[in-house]
Amino acid sequence: MAQRKTVAEQIALAKEDIKQQENKLKLLQQRQKEQERKDRTRRLIERGAILESLIDGAAVLDNERIKAILQTALSSRSFTPKPAGETGKTTNATRTE
Length: 97
Description:
- Helices cover 62% and strands 0% of the residues.
- It contains two helices and no strands.
- The protein is rod-shaped, with a radius of gyration of 27 Å.
- It is mainly α.
- It has a domain at 7-73.
- The protein has helices spanning 7-54, 63-74.
């Protein structure tokens, strides 16, 4: 027959369970931060590749020159983020005239 645990034993088990859950939470948070870093690195690499493909000789320009080119190119435009999935293209079905 199983013995009943005292309240003190139950408290000790609950504290151990809390400690295990806190450690699990820390590990999950570390994984999340690592994934966010990987996603950011990938995004930066992809955008850098796009930039180099659009600017002639970008690979040999220094960062200050690239920054100046981008500032000049973007200073006359206003960019607002579009909702995800919106491409800016319209079709006859969605266009109102």
